Amino acid sequence: MPVEIMRAPPSELPITIADASVRSGGVTILEGISLVLAPGAPTVLIGPNGSGKSSLLRLAMGLLAPTSGRIMWGGRGTTAGDRRAIVFQRPVMLRRSVAANVAFALGRGMLARRAHADRVAELLDLVGLSALGARPARRLSGGEQQRLALARALARNPEVLFLDEPTANLDPAATKAVEDIIVRVAAAGVKIVLATHDLGEARRLAGDVVFMVKGRVRESAPAKSFFADPTTREAQAFLSGDLVI
Questions:
Q1: Distance CA 164, CA 60 (A)
Q2: How many structural domains are present in the chain?
Q3: Once rounded to an integer, what is the mean pLDDT over residues 25-52?
Q4: What pLDDT is stored for residue 203 in this prediction?
Q5: What is the number of other CB atoms lying within 10 angstroms of the CB of residue 13?
């Protein structure tokens, strides 16, 4: 009888973006992006509004195709991998309970159905929603909905998790709850790539920083050195609170 060989799933990392540009209707959205997203501490994208942070997340996720240049996941130039997940700033809640939202996400994965209940319970515990499993998801507060969105994304067992302004418009307590989850998930080995307008959040979470202006990466550096000694005028002005146009 032949022996079945179990092979590890292909890695999504590193994500290598090589001189990639995205244009639409004559407008340049991203230009000449060259970046490597490697395993390790969270990568945080910062920059003024309209700088291209969200578009770069979508490019790295595979939701946006480059007009020129290329992108590779784990050395593969394909979007076939399924170990990536993304949470948007305003996640859509399904018209069902909190627990059923997570169960729906599990239904699209590889986990055996008999294990779904245990996994739903585990994920709701991770995001602090165990007591709200039966509540309609659309009746949750904004912070609770964002935590539920994180649980749904993690149901895919991602190697890379993209987060687009995950704490925008949340109060300090809700922001801390979301950030605590991000820290725990990153410590468990999931690569976090996060876009934020909040410099405090960037300082708290970033292992490295990508600073963007007008669709271009202007600076990329370890967080400690970036915040202590940014090398570009735009980054210096941004960190000082000046307008960067």
A1: 12
A2: 1
A3: 96
A4: 97
A5: 18
Classify residue 73: in a domain, yes or no: yes
How many CB atoms sit inside 10 A of residue 236's CB? 14
| Sign of the alpha-carbon dihedral angle for 38, 42, 46, 51 | positive
Q: Are 158 and 85 in contact (CB under 8 A)?
A: yes
DSSP state letter for 97 = B
Q: Which two tokens stand for residue 21?
A: 């540009």
Q: Where are the beta strands (DSSP E) in 39-148?
A: 43-46, 68-73, 84-87
76 vs 63, more confident: 63
In whole angstroms, what separates CA 54 from the centre of its chain? 10
For residue 172, the enclosing domain spans 15-91+159-239
Residue 69 in domain:
yes
CATH number, residue 60: 3.40.50.300
Helices 116-126/98-107 angle, 10° precision: 120
